[in-house]
Amino acid sequence: MVSTVTDTTFLTSDQYNEQQKAVSYGEDELGQDAFLTLFTAQLQNQNPLDPMENEAFVSQLAEFSSLEGIKGMQGSLDNMVNGMRQEQMVAGANLVGKKVQVAGGHFTGGNGAITQGSIDLKSGAESIILSVYDPKSGDLIYRDTQGGKLPGRAELNWNGRDRSGEIVPEGGYLMTASAVINGKLETVPVTTMADVRSVSWDPAAQEISLEVGDGVFVALADVERIGI
């Protein structure tokens, strides 16, 4: 006659499921060693009158194996991303001290040196108004009105002087342009050659940013041309 098993070390299927839930919601992750220990203990202590089905064992093994595979894949992806980031940082560091052509109008100039900018005019313009500002104070440094321009790229030059012809100190400036097109005054984006001061990693965009002015950063992908 078979006696009734009352040993509390035996686990029924329901008891095991409750135990698994408690483990899954614990603060510590269930690693491979802990899983194998728990799995072995489960086999040794299962209730012989209510053993777990083979499908349940296989399901547990498959689920754990899948989770381990995902964790391994995530680790490989993290290593790949870190490697790409390091390569981009090295490439960006090589640009420090060089000039890059970027949109926005920020540049380092003054001291009587010629600074070149450019604008794209799809349909030409009747006149162009070139302005140079101090980006920190917002003060107007220089302004010049030029004649009509044909469709295409138009070059803009600033001689590093203020409106009275005095040489301004070397520093960071902002060049803007407005064009009279079909009798209407429109703001036109200006592209300038700016000095790269530093590089940094933008975690939000997951890309390198170049400092082209005092606190002014542009994405490496936005660089149109690189000069000396």
Description:
The protein has 228 residues and is of the alpha+beta class. It folds into 2 domains: 13-92; 99-227, Immunoglobulin-like, CATH 2.60.40.4070. The protein has helices at residues 13-24, 32-45, 54-93, and strands at 99-103, 106-109, 115-121, 127-133, 140-146, 152-158, 171-181, 184-188, 191-195, 198-202, 207-213, 216-219, 225-227. A 5-stranded antiparallel beta sheet has the order 6-3-9-1-13, with no helix packed on it. Strands 2, 4, 5, 7 and 8 form a 5-stranded antiparallel beta sheet that branches. The chain has a 3-stranded antiparallel beta sheet with strand order 10-11-12.
Keywords:
five-stranded antiparallel beta sheet, Immunoglobulin-like, 2 domains, 228 residues, disordered N terminus, 29% helix, elongated, alpha+beta, single chain, 3 helices, 13 strands
What is the gist of this entry?
This protein has 228 residues and is α+β, with helices and mostly antiparallel strands. The chain contains 3 helices and 13 strands, in the order H-H-H-E-E-E-E-E-E-E-E-E-E-E-E-E.
Write the layout of secondary structure elements.
Blueprint: H1 13-24, H2 32-45, H3 54-93, E1 99-103, E2 106-109, E3 115-121, E4 127-133, E5 140-146, E6 152-158, E7 171-181, E8 184-188, E9 191-195, E10 198-202, E11 207-213, E12 216-219, E13 225-227
